[in-house]
Amino acid sequence: MSRILVTGANGQIGSELVDVLRSRHGASRVVRLDLQPPPSPDGHSASGPFEVVDVRDRDALADVIGRHEVDTIYHLASLLSATGEQHPDRAWDVNLGGLKNVLDLARQHHLQVFWPSSIAVFGPSTPKTDTPQNTVLDPATMYGVTKRSGEMLCQYYHRRYGLDVRSLRYPGLVSHKTAPGGGTTDYAVDMLKAAAESEPYTCFLEPDAQLPMMYMPDAIRATLALMDADGTALSVRDSYNVAAFSFAPQDLVAAIQRHRPAFGCTYAPDERQRIADAWPSSVDDSTARDDWNWAPEYNLDAMTEDMLSHLREGERESGSVGA
Ligand code: NAD
Ligand code: SER
User: pTM of the entire structure?
Assistant: First the structure.
């Protein structure tokens, strides 16, 4: 029986993707892989196979792929933008060393691969609004350098070896299930969490730092739609732009205040503002829309409402919010 492997499965995206894949295919057919077991297993994630492996260890990865008869890999293990700036050597090793291992093993075992890129491939000389699919790519962070290099590696393996590797340039992702890990767009989740707990928030980006963002259910739908698409329809084999909506911290504050009028936010921008400065404020995803019918379902208000209700539910379950 063939299985799907998800690396970085404990993370913000992996924890949700695994649940959706396990609902589709059954828990035993989806193998989670990360540096350590999840802290508090729940739901579908608790019932299926789990492997503790560092993606830089090619032999250990090969062993997992062989033992579980893996035919598809969602390779999510990575350091994100802010952590990558603190640990550039490790970011290079994990992000590109891990991807090279996955691509080589996928080639050897004829596997399909999904690998996420990011808006971090764009840089200061990239057009800032409606950033096109094909444009200047001059990443300003080590994270962005690894993402652009990874895109080129994926395209090379497709052209040279016919490997079926597919990729999306995710915008900043917002979700309530698992806390984000070391990114520049994490402020949005932190702010919503503070609002749900009736706490004020101090934002590490400027009030007008507008960035492309997406709600997690749309990101998971985009990922699965791309993987399900007819390969002959895909005109992009480095990485597709995908977009949902753009907002700045001050826009999220206003959206929250429509539900929580007393919510307050102050601003203390730190080094992450420099990272945000180099990224686009909006992205043109028309190629994804044309090639595999991509369309997001959530806008800023719908996401804010859904996030606040889930975060409040979580607080109630943990007993820290009154009914
Ligand atoms: P995350 O930081 O929440 O999770 C990453 C996971 O990878 C963690 O559980 C971590 O333990 C694991 N990991 C790190 N190094 C590892 C190693 N050497 N071996 C095995 N596992 C390792 O990240 P995420 O937000 O879930 O992102 C997943 C992917 O999506 C990454 O490639 C990221 O660059 C990309 N992405 C995320 C966003 C976003 O906003 N979350 C946006 C664009 C792209
Ligand atoms: N959301 C990610 C980050 O901020 C972008 O890839 O690092």
Answer: 0.96
